[in-house]
Amino acid sequence: MNLRILRLAYWLIRLRWFAIIGILIAYYIAKHLLHITISDLPIYSIVIFLILLNVLSFSFLKYLQKSQVRKSIKNVKRVIKFQISTDLIVLTVLLHYSGGVENPFIIYYIFHMIIGSIMLSTKESFLQTSFALMLLGSMAFLEYSGIIDHFPLQGFITSNMYNNLTYLASTGFIFISTSYFVVYITRTIIKQSEKHEAAYLQANAKLKQRDKVKNEYVMRITHDIKGHITAIQSCISVLNEKLAGPLNSQQEDFVGRAHKRIQILNKFISDLLSITNRRLLLQSEKKYFSIKNSIDEVINMAENSAREKNISLIKNIDASVENIYGEPSSIEEVLSNLIQNAIKYSPVGKLVIINAKDQHENILIEVIDNGIGIPEHEIPYIFNEFYRASNVKNEIKDGTGLGLAISKHIVEEHGGKIWVESIMNFGTTFYLLLKKSK
Amino acid sequence: MKKNKILIIDDDVDLLASTKLLLESKNYEIETATNSKIGLGIIKTFHPDLIILDIMMDTQLEGFNFLNELKSADNFKETPVIMSTGMAKSIGVNMRAAIEDVDSLPKTRFIDKSGNWEELLEAIKDLL
Question: Do A266 and B114 touch (CB under 8 A)?
């Protein structure tokens, strides 16, 4: 709501620039194309006054935006009220110098009333409308009674309507009734829209709360399941490692299968816990750390699995690649996911290349493999939770479909980007763009 | 050769039994306890060279409280401790940083309780 007020205040200023241009165009057309007599000085004075008003209002709003919030909202409302009142006075003066009630632009009061109704409360809107009608009425009366001069639009209207009582009375009646009716309709529409907006915000907050409850629930359940799985894995490991005595070949085969499956399940649950927790945990501990060291460490940890497949890990890190701002263990988790994937999906004996390039404000990390690739039509989905590309699902069973989803979540939380390019049966390159500073 | 002594404190008896068997096969002398109170009693007589401690037992932070108690007692300040939890990743960086960086808790390691023994064995080797 508060932001809405501020937006409206700026909108009013933008509208006024259009009004200034509109006045100048109307003045030009009236004077030079329609050859109507209009005195220049009041028009120019008013235009200059409006420009000053706009510049001042804009600067004041900017100043308020920087100052204390609660106080400034009140002041923004004051600025709006002041502007609307000033606009009404300016319009009246402008009309007075250009034909008074004979000027068809008197209809523009209605615009001001609509704008006022959008920005102000119902009571304030009716007050502003009454103020506008009072200004218009006073002008009409003072010109009619000859207390102030009438500046006719010579060449435009020939008969003197400003002192025609019937015309004044009937126009006045139509004008007054139209004004109040317009304000009433506008306020009704605005109130409805405000009601909808409030309901929408409330529903949104409720959804967020429910999502949190759901995540906490997933977290609890997952954690409880993980306790059991871990114990089962540990017990099966006892058999698998033959700590409880020798197994015959069939027993060994089945214990081996069970052991493998339980490892996959455990990894899946760890990933699920990790991603759920990241959604729940809003703050993380970010600091400046050496991304170069992190890359080295993750490559070190991946050496074992690379050696098993006779894969060489090659790194090219620009000499100037050093510190970035972020949460080191999260970024290392992303790097580890990408490098382990590259190894997992590469045939035996291939290369995995890790490049880190200094790009002024960012570090670009590339993880390049000559693996099986990702089918082109599946690329848009690979960062989705639980998604596994069709060509890996069949061949490699031990994926959870969560690694890339977690990675994307982490990278975006760090204000970075992650994307992929891949050619089937040729290779895949993952790109990781990380910001150096906050 | 004298065997290194390890005390495992965990409320999961199945995990205790299997881990005990594994570590005994690697030539460690093992005692187990299902809560920190029993653990404290064993420490005084067993004098372990290393303690493996579950963080979440009866209460969410039982392991942490026990760790603090241990590290503030002169006799056991230097005893290495491996903190294990099923929530390593989810516990967040703050707690991990608190354990690994703070000088007041020397020789403390934090590992993910995953049923994956390699990580555990490596941590034990590092600390002993």
Answer: yes
